[in-house]
Amino acid sequence: MQDARQIVRKHLIEAKNKSKQAYDKNVHLLVIKLNDKVLMKNMKRKNKLEPNWLGSFEVIEINESVNVTIIKNNKHVRVHMNHLKLYKKESE
């Protein structure tokens, strides 16, 4: 019985490592600094005609390594970096 458990444990660890490698191969970390302008993903989108991204908002604080505090409607809102992208100004 112990041998079966050890075999299963070994296979689980191998599967976990394969999943991590596949994820790490395609992940692109966003580099955000203080006072950057960002767009926030529209999570309350009701139909396909509403915009996917809202903003632009200013970054006022970076909490831990994945959360960012932005100013939205004169309120401080904490957002995960996965829901943000950098705002690019249109060339004039």
Descriptive overview:
This protein is of the alpha+beta class and 92 residues long. The protein has a domain at 36-86: Roll (SH3 type barrels), CATH 2.30.30.140. 27% of the residues lie in helices and 34% in strands. The chain contains 1 helix and 5 strands; from the N terminus they run αβββββ. It has a 5-stranded antiparallel β-sheet, with no helix packed on it. The radius of gyration is 20 Å and the shape is elongated. 7% of the residues are buried.
Query: Which CATH-level-2 architecture of the domain at 36-86?
Result: Roll
Helix content: 25-40%
Percentage of residues in DSSP E strands: 25-35%
Largest sheet: 5 strands, antiparallel
- Across the major sheet, the strand order is 4-3-2-1-5
Computed structural class: alpha+beta
* Number of distinct beta strands: 5
- Average pLDDT, rounded to a whole number, is 91
Number of helical segments? 1
Radius of gyration: 20 Å
Q: Based on Cα principal axes, name the global outline.
A: elongated
Distance between the termini: 71 Å
Low-confidence stretches: none
The SSE order reads HEEEEE
Enter the CATH topology name of the domain at 36-86. Answer: SH3 type barrels
Summarize the structure.
With 92 residues, the chain is of the alpha+beta class.
